[in-house]
Amino acid sequence: MGYSPAHDQPESADLLFEVIDHIPAGILVVSLPDFRILAINARACARLGIRISATLTGRLCRDVIPRFSDDRLDDLWLSMAGLRNDDTVPATQIGAVVSRRWNAYPVRDQHGNAVRLLLVWLEAGETPEHQFASSAQHITQALISTLDRDQLLDLILEHLHSIVSYDSAAIILRDDDGYYIAASRGLPDRTAPTYQRLPKDNALLNRIETVIEPVIVRRLPEDAIEAMCPLSNAPGEWLSVPLRAQGDVVGILTLFSRLPNRYTRADAARAQAFATYAALAVRNAELYRRAREQSARLALVNKIARTITATHDLRAIFDHLIEHLHGVVPLDSAELALFDRTAQHLQPVAHYPASDNTETLCVHYHDQDTISLRRLIEQRQPVLLPLDDTGNPPLTQRLVAAGIRSCLIVPIVDGENLSGMLLLASRQSNAFPAIEIRTFADLAQHLAVAIQNAQLHQAREQAIANLRIAQQRLIQSERLTAVGELVAGVAHELNNPLTAVLGFAGILQEVAPAEYQRDLTMIVESATRARRIVQNLLTFARQREAHLEEVDLNLAVRQVLSLLAYQMRTHNIRIEERLQPQLPVTVADATAIKQVVLNLLNNAQQALAAWSGQRTIVVTTRLEVRENRQWLVLEIADTGPGIAPEHLPRIFEPFFTTKPVGEGTGLGLSICYGIVRQYHGNIRVQSAPGKGACFTVELPVQSFVSAPSTRDTTVTVQPSSRYHILVVDDEAAVAELIARLLREQRCIVDVCHDGAQALDLLSRVAYDLIICDVRMPGMSGDELFVELKQRAPHLVRRVLFVSGDTASRSTRDFFERSGVGYIEKPFTASELIDAVQRSLAAVS
Questions:
Q1: Residue 770: beta bridge partners?
Q2: Nearest-CA neighbor of 603 among 507, 538, 673?
């Protein structure tokens, strides 16, 4: 559209005035319905009898044109333009001239309403010059009626044919990426990618750009014909004219004829004159198109920015980005990669297409790739990755093998830091034009912000998750501590009667008749089983720092199975043991390894609890050798419902559970994972719906280096020795059992039931050994020990404690501080005698 310099598009208006001033016809453009002058050239001023002035535009016709109102020129022009059917307008002298020499054309808006009137003064006749003026008139009309570049280019080619005939013609424009066919007639479809672009270094087109006059080529060399493809590869003649607007070449107008010697100098002159007007029109439309494209790009960037910054998931950010870019560039594959801050290595975090099984973008980058990509990323601007150089890194080789012909690297920069890159690849050549590359440069800034926000959010979520884990572990630790104290008290109460049962049953076995031996054996076995259960409970209730020791995996498994035997039987679950004998040991915390076994068995039991099929848990241990290294392997497999495939990747995550709310914390398997990894092992799971699950734990075979023993062989009590021993225990049955067993060893034994009575006896009698319980009413065993340190320090070495309370933290701390020997209740007769012999040997 044409506007006066005072209106809001001065550059377009300047171009319009330059066009109409060069047209050999009178041109007048007025607005409707007020008939205000929008544009007028000197020829129109002469025909209308008005003085040329810079102030004409913007004024009303009735104030400027003589007799405009008297001759009712407004009604006459509307009638000539077909906007009013009125034949009553008087044909005055001016009116008659108007009706003979002026043509009126309405200019309509997008709704079809006439908003302007174009009036053109034409001389009579149909000479080529008149035809040229008519075509120029239509170009001017198009210039002020449309800003669509493609429509304008088609109109130029349409009217060009009436001035200079051709078999085919094209308007070739140039952008930052080179030449491209913007409009054509008589050529193949220019929308096909093969026919759209011409080589950027086309020598013939470069030469045409530099000349002033039109170029007529009578015969093209074979290499030039090939370079001009797809314009034509047939013999013929070319006429090319540069399109210059305000001194700049905006394109090239090219005509082709199959007839030899078709174009003359006159044809070239008319084509050049026509090109002058066409160039101005093209420049005007191109300015508008670029402004519109820039606006569209900004809108796209803003839309993508809003979308990707609305989520904190890196994969979602990438997916949203790719979804929007599909409408911008022909994208076949893409990848988002971020730098690993510790290793300074590019790590792919997302790729498109997600289901792509090729080795194009779904692999980690080779060191050589990282070096070459870093060099490109450090430029901080999008750059095309060269795919045709020799000595390409592995990434480039993979891209070429996958048919990629265009690849763009978009750096992601967070302030001064290089965060990573966005790699975009296409199987089309020249898939990333310069104008779109600038769009990606703007987009990269928003992408960097979105990624930074996502990383901060992930760090925050991880911190919260770690805090939750710590809180849960603290709660669990406090709960286990309370349970441990409760178990310690229960164990103490159970251990005393169990000690008496085991001890006296053993004594009876030695003296009872044969018919009672079977009954006594059952008593001893049941008491021993109860003892083992109590010891296992104490093992898992005990809260202490990790203690590295040589762990027998089979023994740990059997202890846990013994603890869970009753629970498995009541749930009708069959345990099948496949333990390889004589396995080597590993170095770990025995309690922690038992915790792993317990958690895995509990997990299997819970999976089978509601299972209607076969209920079997197979526990397997074996030794494997891989890469000259030995591994202890534990497998716990169940025949339950299995694990859903979508749950497998998260099975070891803290707080992940498929159980209903209130039935699980989601920490059991994550604790197993942490313990196994702590001791340099591996844990994995295999499962399929309906086929059960199998958890595999691998621990490295290792042991402590044994040092030569410097201790002497244990000295045993001589049968003829008459040792004097004091037994202190508040449980009469336990005290009586100890005394009886020692007397059978020809020892002299005194018995008392509290610490105060023991102090009194120790002040009057010299004892070789003091066997004392820890927890007693009144003065406890540890309080008695403190008194002895003060009153008779020499007796401290002669103390042997017996206790059923070794799970208590206070009891364990006391044993560690004092360094005295102790034996745990319940004990057998042989265990007691062995402990007594060791203690006596130590003080003898």
A1: 726, 799
A2: 673
